[in-house]
Amino acid sequence: MVEYTQNGLPIVEPEIIQVLLRDWRRINAENKSPDLSIDIIRNLVQENPYLYEFAIKTTRRLYKTKSNQEPQAFLTGFCAAYELLRRQQETNQLEQTISR
Hints:
Shape: globular
Number of strands: 0
Distance between the termini: 13 Å
Structural class: mainly alpha
Order of helices and strands: HHHH
Number of domains: 1
Helix content: over 70%
Radius of gyration: 15 Å
Strand content: under 5%
Largest sheet: none
Low-confidence stretches: none
């Protein structure tokens, strides 16, 4: 069943979270480069450039005032949230197409 928040964002299902975590673990275990975060950032640049600019500006500001770990953690979390919403929306669209 396709569900959305009051503001129209897709509600991310636990299975989507597990798939993203599995993908990240696999890529880290294989030491692949570029990693999944790079692919997510590429998608973000193409799909939502204003949101990308926000993420990069915030990360740069954090680098000026914080240790390296905090900006990296922010960007990783930001990318994870964006990718989870993107994957859930893709799944929702597929489910709606199939149910027609």
